[in-house]
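Bug: token stream looks shifted between consecutive jobs. Job 1:
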Amino acid sequence: MPKGSPVSTAPPSIACMRCRRRKKKCDRRHPRCGECQRSSAECIRFQERKPRDVATVPWCYVQDLETRLAQVKKELALCKGMLAQVHPHSSQVVSKDEQSPASNTVVIVSPTEDIPSDDALSSPVERQPDDLGHLKANDLSNYFQYVHPSWPFLDQAQLSQWFHDYTSQGVSLEDYQLYFIHLVCAIGACYSSPSDRQCPHVSRSRELYTDALHIYLADAVSEEHKFRTKAYLLLIVYAFHCLTPFQLHDTTNEAILEITERLSTFQIPSTFLPLDFDDIDEATVAEDKDNRVLLIYCYTAFEIIASLWNRSFQVLVGSLDDKILDQGIWLTFGGGSMPADLEHMFAIRRIQSKVRRLWSQFIAFPEQEETRRRQTAEIRAELEQWKAMIPLVSSTVDGSMSYHPLAMLKTYDYSICSLYQHETIVLSVEDYSVLLSAASENSRCFRRIQKFFMIYSTWGGLLEQFSIGVILLSCFWGTPLLCRTAAFQAPDALQALEDCQQTLTGFAQKWEAAEIYLEAYTLLFSHTPIYACKETVPSEDFRPRMESIICELENRGVTMAILTLMRRMLSLSEESTDFLL
């Protein structure tokens, strides 16, 4: 048995922590060196472990974990039941005892004799999803896989239970419950295949939406405030995914007005009262938290529509915009824990609202250029602080891609582009450099995420990437060759141009209505001076075709800022390229 090393009385060879930090000469005496002795300070040896108090976990945190675990178990049981209903006779799993000892896999066989007869399929006691019109369990699953992670304002366990009771047990549901089932399946049907061209799920989605809108919506909006707000918010989420965007005029406007009213009339929760107020119970705290989380997603939808949809938004709800920004500060305060990633994403939505307010004030008072530049610098500082927090609050484990580090970085870059680019100003060379960096990073992040996930297959994602592509091209048009930095010819910037074109190509393959965005970007890209200053003679039909495309994009709701950039590039393409020197 080896002998232990003898206890050494010699001083340690490394200075104490205080002397190391203060860059003082340490005599390494034990238990306290000379410097610490003279200063009456605690002397801590290098890599010395000190006894600490036992860490405690709040009981409410433990209860929250137990509640979430019970919910996960319940959802797992419901998923197993739904899978068994979708394929009750299609597969048969061999038990573990019947498997070969050398095999660790599950053997699946599909005997044709297990297929039920027509009488069994039409039995009124056990109804199958296929017998319920357009309702499909696969559409419900698609919604929870691709849409719900970014918009988790519905109770997945409750909605799955409703679907299970209605499709399998033949339970009669209320109309408001059928509204949510039909509209959720209508959205999930949009993810049935990578392309929506001549696919059966397209008509199925439209039929489900029509039934939800004309049969069940009236009952859904007559429910209590929580269900009413969820019903309208789900309608806006459908508008992000449907095949004909910007054509749901009346219903979408009604939904926008509803969530705008809820946001503008939000009251300070009762949980903001003093902590010694005894009348606040846990149920009130939980209700206030759920209500604030729901309104945060309403605020997110509101901001997406305001920044991406040019549908006379200011005329519709402009008078309430400032009030919503002022009231929104209360959504992240009060009792109950709020996920850090959700709070962080809500914070940048509020910053985006400040950007819109900045440009609205500048349009009203265009002579206040110095004020605009000062406020721009202040908002830029807020964005930089927000960006610095991304490594601390982002998540690669959660199913929601909105909280992925690349997704958060993409949102930051788009906010920078919104802050520096507007149709009322002429950008400087420094501004174009900022836009080039932000836009190229946004395009690369989007491409990397979308390559593995379908989470951004929305019209909002298409409009964002089209806007980013136009901003990228405008940087090359607005910066003379002698003023261009190495970033213009860097691989990241050139790769971003290709990534944007590939992204728009993917959207065009999915939606026929998206082809015009790809055509517009491709035409502008082919005439952009990327590498060298040389005469580029546009074809005869280039200008008339681009003018026609710009008019069509204006009718489709593309923002005036992007349309102005396109018109500037179209005008410059017909002039001599000497202006680039």
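Job 2, same session, no restart:
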Amino acid sequence: MKAKTGLFVLPLLFTGCLNLNLKQILPSVKDYDLNVGAIEAQTCKSTLSVGLLEVLSADLYNTKSIVKRTLGGEITYLKEQKFADAPTNMFKRMLFLQAPKHCISISPAPYANAPSTLQLNVLTLALLDDNTAEVVLDYTLTTGAESQHKRIVQKQPIPKEQDLSQIQALQRVSLKAIDQLLAQIEQITPKKEQQSKDEGLKGPKLNKPIF
């Protein structure tokens, strides 16, 4: 009976020692969000309403692993840091959080009352081997029957002497890209809405009677 008990206990002890050794050998992995810093309050006379269709990304970048890319196209990943969520979800949250600063209200579907809709595509979110962090976004803003397609490219140098400088560079460059996107929407949308209002005030064109 004692022999059987010993045979049963030994594997458990071995498993426990193995797990302990693995924890000691493997470095701890820390999770990071792209959304950092305080959200600024903004007093707006009027707010632009924009419906968010979707946030898309290539599978290569829509991962919790933080991508490192060389000029030759080689892909590796950071070993001790990763994202807390998929980049598409983090950029979507960033839009919701930063939009009020630009007097814009971003609404998820359904958005029946939004005169404009937005679709965002994350083309690049990576650390480059020239010691920079890069974000490339494509977006389509549609108002009525008219659509505008634009691309935003932002880069951020990575200071070598600072701890967590790679993560901080990705956070800063992402925020810059979203701020640039929202600033462009802020400039484009009022012109379109005012043009629609002016056309509505003028009313339909009437053909002059011919005598």
